[in-house]
Amino acid sequence: MSFSPLIRQLIDALRGLPGVGPKTAQRMALHLLERDREVARHLARALEAAMDGVGYCSRCRTLSETEICNLCADPRRDDSLLCILQSPADVWAVEQAGGFHGRYFVLKGNLSPIDGLGPEEIGIPALLACLEDRDVAEVILATNPTVEGEATAHYIANLLKPRGIKVSRIAHGVPLGGELEYIDGGTLAHALAGRTPIG
Amino acid sequence: MSFSPLIRQLIDALRGLPGVGPKTAQRMALHLLERDREVARHLARALEAAMDGVGYCSRCRTLSETEICNLCADPRRDDSLLCILQSPADVWAVEQAGGFHGRYFVLKGNLSPIDGLGPEEIGIPALLACLEDRDVAEVILATNPTVEGEATAHYIANLLKPRGIKVSRIAHGVPLGGELEYIDGGTLAHALAGRTPIG
Ligand SMILES: [Zn+2]
Ligand SMILES: [Zn+2]
Question: What pTM was estimated for this model as a whole?
């Protein structure tokens, strides 16, 4: 099948979206061309506007189109609690979960010496500068429960403890609604070791 | 969760793509912003270029960025065979399947009086004009095997038979590799009624 160049280029460009394979890209291109050209033009403008206008918050380093993001600018948030995450997606996830009212700091990924990602690269100096400016009582390490995430959490915990800041790690275990038989062994072992008294 | 306006607009615009729900749109927006801004700008340009440049072939009425599409312009195709379909997606599907070397004509959907789609609306006059110009020996009706698709096929068959054109319908039945127990009853009944001798 030889698509005409503009259609071929559109299908190829749509494949740049995560999770979009050749069949899906073809279906999307056809839908836009046949049914919804205004949707396509609107998407083109939204893409350009976001790529031009969205940068990073100078305080917490999450994605933001303003110098200070709306979470950092919100006077109702609790300055004494700082949650450290490893991507803006994690900030979105925690905000959507609700219940956390402190501040955030977003690392650029995890420590990974093999990939050349040391403390400097992932933003540790900026984290320390951010802690200097504020009266943080507790830092919650919410890096992912992976080998690199754990290593990053421990590295930061060791840096902060001498400064008299309480450091905690988010709990890991069986997800709510999860069935034990379908949970991986590592998670299950972690959940057992981390058991808490009830009653 | 309150996204900043540009991110919110990007997520909303991505939801205009078929099959993209809120979570997927969020993941796509994040991926583009965090990892691949060049991919996003490239997609924006490809969308604009395709919406501006792609129209319809004046002969077969499939999507084309030239007055005559490359299938109609190809001198190696067989002018005596004309396959009638109901969307450019169907042309793509038949071309990708391979094995058909005739010409195409694309209707604008199916006859559906309830929706105000009569012969005029779906392009029957243009089909007749196209048949006048050419020496077509056989018309293959490849509208979908739905109530409207069947009605459209029969309508066209009745129009063309008096003109001495051979009219055929694509075969319907159990898909290759399909397992009988998972095939819907209508298809199965059709496949049994349309049985062909072997050996
Ligand atoms: Zn911020
Ligand atoms: Zn054509």
Answer: 0.81
